[in-house]
Amino acid sequence: MEDKIALVVGVTGITGSSVADSLIKKGWKTYGLSRNPNISIESLIPVAANLLDEADLQKALAEVKPSHVYLSTWMRHATEAENIKVNSSMVKNLLNTLSPHKSIRHVALVTGLKHYLGPFDDYAKGASPLTPFREDHPRLDTPNFYYAQEDEVYAAAARDGFTWSIHRPHTVIGKAVGNLMNMGTTLAVYASICKEKGQAFTWPGSEAQWEGISDMTDANVLADQLIWASTTQAAQNKAFNITNGDIFRWKWMWEQIANYFGLEIQGYTGENKSLEQQMAGDEEVWNDIASKYNLKENNLSKLASAWHTDLDLSRPIEIMTDMSLSRKLGFTTYKPTLDSFIELFEDLRADKLIP
């Protein structure tokens, strides 16, 4: 077990919680780091620390000597320059703090498709790689906090001698309350509001997304790849795309989600109908729904991240990624994306987060 000591950074998030749960089920001693790591994962060892405070990190991690580090955390700021400064500092501070222990064998970093599409400031603007996106495509000629995070991992690996892997999921579907990028829960909340108000489940995005091919990433599929890459010699020092393995068109998926909630749909009608605008002013509606159905969370902003769902669904191009690299090396996990949505909706209902 000395070789199976994990530190999951961002453990309260969609990805972090799934990775921690998977590691513990596989018998790993698992630490979970976040500012407020009090989550209900049995056998998780919580570590409360601020990644931007080196003194706080040194105190919190003084006795933590992980063999494997799984990084899945970020902070959103108004400009990409700020994103780069803050998010690269978090990675650098963590790896600098752990460096004296000389215990790390592998670091796995989760980024995403903004590697190919550009940062929030220039998201999906200008020239983008042809789909499906492939890992060997060179970086875009624009500042990007994903690149800065990668560079901190590469520098620490060269200094300390550990291996690394980079993981680029499409939109991640999984359960976490208060997550900044949470399409699955956002759509479940939006659908619940539509049902309560007696209105159609209205497509908020672009024609390209409505008509085009897409894919997504289940949090548990991502967790499987993270653990596989960190323990498979052939996967060391490589970047991997990671999706469920199937493809779909949103004009089909939107109807499947609507059917689950018993809703009529309104598809693309010639203009984007921003979800953020559609849900503006629904805080009171959600508060009433939470009271009516005795839900655990009446704060709409802690469940729904409409801005992020709009960002994904308004893209002017279809989005799909190539999975050949990890498939060739032996990673075979597959999951139909509709199952990811339905399982999430069932979990949300069981946990009294939606009606």
Automatic annotation (TrEMBL):
Species, as recorded: Rhodonellum psychrophilum GCM71 = DSM 17998
Domain PRISE-like Rossmann-fold: 54-355
Recorded superkingdom: Bacteria
Alphabetical list of CDD domains matching this protein: 5beta-POR_like_SDR_a
InterPro entries for this protein: NAD(P)-bd_dom_sf, PRISE-like_Rossmann-fold
Name of protein: PRISE-like Rossmann-fold domain-containing protein
Organism placement in taxonomy: Bacteria, Pseudomonadati, Bacteroidota, Cytophagia, Cytophagales
